[in-house]
Amino acid sequence: MSKKRIHIFDTTLRDGEQSPGAKLNTDQKVELAKQLEKLGVDVIEAGFPISSPGDFKSVEKVASTVKNCIVCGLTRALKRDIDCAYEAIKHAKYPRIHTGIGASDIHIKYKFNSTREKILKRAVNAVKYAKKYVDDVEFYAEDAGRADKQFLVLMITEAIKAGATVVNIPDTTGYCLPEDWGVKIKYLFENVPNIHKARVSVHCHNDLGLATANTIQGIMNGAQQVEVTINGIGERAGNTSLEEVVMAIHTYANSLPFYTQVNTLEIYKTSRMVSEIMGIPVQPNKAIVGGNAFAHSSGIHQDGVIKRRENYEIIDPKVIGLDTSKIVLTARSGRAALKHRLNNLGVDLTKNKLDIFYKEFLNFADLKKEVNDDDLKVLIGFNNDHTLINKISSL
Ligand code: KIV
Ligand code: ZN
User: Fold this and answer.
1) pTM over 0.90
2) Residues 306/299, Cβ–Cβ less than 8 Å
3) How far apart, in whole angstroms, are the C-alpha atoms of residue 293 and residue 302?
4) What confidence tens digit (pLDDT) does each residue in 4-28 have?
5) Which one of 31, 85, 279, 303 is at 20 to 30 Å from 296 when CA atoms are compared?
6) How far is 191 from 78, CA to CA, in rounded Å?
7) What are the distances in angstroms from CA 346 to CA 4, 49, 187, 327?
8) Closest ligand to 166 CA?
9) DSSP class of residue 73?
10) Rounded to the nearest whole angstrom, what is the distance from the C-alpha of residue 298 to the centroid of ligand 2?
């Protein structure tokens, strides 16, 4: 099976930074950009240069620091935005300007108080203007998810004619269902006559919790680039999460004809860096990088994982840079998990002694959410100097 490379456009530093409370200073953006480069993303969208002098400086610094990825700055379809973005990215080894405008009738009427014809002209002029500065111009058709598909075909055709190298099809409001989204992307491939002159990108938001599903539908219907953020942060309910898309492609490596150049071993570290620097905790049940993503707490699951990890895990945590899965002891845990954790502390009980100790453990566990190693040591009878006192023999 010949595989198609899926380009990873990371917008953690732009759309991700639009999350309330996520604001980064220049040093923080540079530190995260270096980690994204290490992670192996293809494009770093470093910010929206005209939005503030601070963001201009951050994009400029990221552009002059990063050497192995394209560095991109966002603009509206306005000359002053494009001038400013170019000034910020001009020292990048691989500079890209990302410009665009609303494509849905809702945006055209209520955001721009304009008409399709006028908006189309602005789109074309913006791409042509950005092209004077850089070869690599990405065009976004904002709110494409709710846009009329024939108008979208026209807008994308004209943007490519004007010189766009990448066309970004965003589901800005996270409105689309996976099947409909896939049909929309396929429709573009079948109806935009010059579509093969540009790379098609999908940019999905998570308002219905469908961003990853939609992004996968996008690539299954021809898109070659995905726009994602670490931990899925972003406007409102966030963007498609990088780790989910990359690990879905990785997990289905034998049946899906795609690959990415992401170094999966860097995923967990990147997730935690973004969380700490932005001050946004990762929800415990977050797919791939949540604190519970590789934790097992019920007896049946623990027994299964201890017998063989694959019984309850589809991903080896080592692949994302985590040492091991976690066996969490709670009142729902079984003897297998208790024995496993005692063994890790160097304690090996006979079957009878384990049965007796298990009852004591359950009484304690009913009083607490989680039994940690320190609790276990006290229960089993470790001394302060960590030598085992004679409790076990009295069981
Ligand atoms: O969601 C969106 O439409 C965007 C564009 C600015 C690309 O973030
Ligand atoms: Zn967005």
Assistant:
1) yes
2) no
3) 14
4) 999 999 999 999 999 998 999 999 9
5) 279
6) 28
7) 49, 57, 62, 16
8) 1
9) E
10) 38
How far does residue 235's CA lie from ligand 1's centre (Å)? 9
Ligand nearest to the CA of 240: 2
What local confidence, expressed as pLDDT, does residue 111 receive?
97
Closest residue to atom 8 of ligand 1, CA basis: 15
CB neighbour list of residue 258: distance below 8 Å, 6 or more residues apart: 3, 4, 5, 6, 219, 249
Q: Give dist(CA 19, CA 256) in Å, integer.
A: 32
- Residues 6+ positions from 151 with CB-CB distance below 8 Å: 103, 105, 116
Ligand 1 atom closest to the CA of 142, numbered from 1: 3
CA of 143 to the centre of ligand 2 (A): 9
Angle between helices 267-278 and 242-251 (to 10 degrees): 170
pLDDT in tens, 331-389: 999 999 999 999 999 999 999 999 999 999 999 999 999 999 999 999 998 765 555 55
Please give the helix or strand (H or E) that residue 122 lies within, else none.
Answer: helix 116-131
pLDDT for the residue numbered 271? 98
pLDDT, residue 393, reads 53
Domains and CATH numbers, the chain: 4-278 (3.20.20.70), 295-384 (1.10.238)
The residues, ordered by sequence, that sit 6+ positions from 98 with a Cβ below 8 Å of its Cβ are 45, 72, 73, 74, 75, 85, 137, 138, 140, 168
Neighbours of 215 (CB within 10 A): 27
| Ligand having the closest approach to the CA of 74 | 1
Q: Please work out whether the CB of residue 173 comes within 6 Å of at least one atom of ligand 1.
A: no
Protein residue with its CA nearest to atom 2 in ligand 1: 172
Q: What pLDDT score was predicted for residue 312? A: 95
Residue ranges in the chain modelled with pLDDT below 50: none
Q: Which pair of structure tokens corresponds to residue 15?
A: 């759309």
Q: Is the CB of 140 under 6 A from ligand 1?
A: yes
Phi/psi region, residue 187 (left: phi>0; alpha: psi -120 to 50; beta: rest), is: alpha
SS3 state at 219: helix
User: What pLDDT does residue 382 have?
Assistant: 77
